[in-house]
Amino acid sequence: MTTTYNLPDGPQMPRWLRMIKFVSQPLKYVDDFAQIYGDTFTIRSNRSDNHLVYFSQPQALEQIFTADSRHFEVGRGNIGLKFLLGDRSFMLSDGDRHQRQRQLLAPPFHGERMRAYGEEIREITQQVSNEWQIGKPFNIRKSMQEITLRVILRVVFGLNEGQLFEELRRSLSDLLDFISSPVMSSAFFFQFIQKDFGAWSPWGWILQQRQKIDQLIYALLRERRAELGQNRQDILSLMMAARYEDGQGLSDEELHDELMTLLVAGHETTASALTWAFYWIDSLPEVREKLQKELNTIGVNPDLSSVAKLPYLTAVCQETLQIYPIAMTAFVRIVKNPITIMGYELPEGTAIVPSIYLAHHREEV
After folding, report:
1. What does the alpha-carbon distance between residue 136 and residue 141 come to, in Å, rounded to a whole number?
2. How many other β-carbons are positioned within 10 Å of the β-carbon of residue 49?
3. What is the model's pTM?
4. What ranges make up the beta strands (E) of 206-293?
5. For residues 22, 24, 29 and 32, what is the CA-based torsion angle, rounded to 10 degrees?
6. 102-160 confidence digits (pLDDT tens)
7. Residue 1 CA, distance from chain mean position
8. Among 149, 257, 267, 357, which residue's CB has the most CB atoms within a 10 Å radius?
9. Domains detected in the chain
């Protein structure tokens, strides 16, 4: 018996033209298609089992996120990130392996540890903002990148100063700045750009920089393994001490990939969100005044838990992330076993794209 699958309508345009629009005008890309085709649309592939289906309505997202994970593969749908994150990143793993990694890595991100990290984040933020001068322009995005990178190096890597700190800080900053440029970010979608013609070619420089960072991270891991038992509380040390149910710990290769994952997931994303927050606060005087009034109620050095509970500050953060979410989509899921979402029967091989941006910009939201 042959199963009949039905897919939503979608644009009919050459792939190369679509990709150019996607890279150069990513917001207009999804906005235009949503205006024409609605909440759900299909980007068709030349292959019958390799289409992309965008969903943005809340009911669809709920169905996707609560579906049995055996229906989907996440790693295969986000293979373009592998060169940055590595083969063993929990963000690119599936099934039981993903569950085991999450359970192992979750404890450092809860409770008392997070409160202690909050103090370190405040200290770093103060150091960077002390460099600002009243009446003198400065690049807010670079300041936010500096804060987030220093936070990751101290809280995650356990580095605060020294040669290794400076080398990692410089190398990571150079690499992430370079690959976030419009031209180089397109390399994730156009294979022909990913050609190594030596250190003077763009991709060759990226590979060389990545190799340098790998060497620095493995040097850090060797150094940290020699210090085990010193009761360090940075996330790397806690990950090194963690054990699976069988008593095994994470290998150096796994630790390397998880460090790169936390770096890539937490650096540019957080810096961009903070930059947009400052942009909107500066653009809307009534918001700025109301926020400042609320912040003035908690004193100069408030307890961080009281800051987290401020209702208007929370609203400002949430609204910033709604207007410009740090990622346009959630991770793409490749259908492994046929599944029905919002009445559409999706065959094996279909790529499901949960659109965060479109979901946030729905009129009723």
Report:
1. 15
2. 11
3. 0.86
4. none
5. -150
6. 777 777 777 677 778 888 999 999 999 999 999 999 999 999 999 999 999 999 998 88
7. 42
8. 257
9. 15-74+332-351 (3.30.43), 103-269 (1.10.630.10), 284-323 (no CATH)
